[in-house]
# Entry
Amino acid sequence: MTELDHHHWMNRAITLAGLCPVVEGAFSVGAVIVADGEEIATGYSRETDPKIHAEEAALDKLDPADPRLSRATIYSTLEPCSERATKSRLPCTDRILAARIPEVVIAWREPSTFVEDCVGVEKLQQQGVKVVELPELAEAAMAMNQHLDLS
Ligand SMILES: [Zn+2]
# Structure
């Protein structure tokens, strides 16, 4: 996929992040899963319940056996979590690995606001997932998180 495509789909994810119900103490994140040049699922933080993450919301809309997943790219405005406060749910990093998605594109890495040190990117790379960062879109991806103290 070209850089232009990456920007197109990340901008779509950023638009989705703007749909998140805003709450104190949680990020607003958008995610898009793309395969064969088409959007196959989308999600955003708190879309279907107060604890759901964007990547999780998108993955929940697909059959885990969907063959397109093994050639898909997931765009997330934020680095997928490697630990979560809701212990009963898998971190998004684990969900992405379980779905066998080979490529993850993110706009910004998780600041240590809620989790001491997010290792989502490292964990994905260790498992052979290609991770692309688009720092030039980080500011746009953070725009809907101004309510959080990210310092
Ligand atoms: Zn997550």
Notes: Helices lie at 3-17, 54-59, 92-98, 120-126, 138-142. The chain has a mean pLDDT of 91.
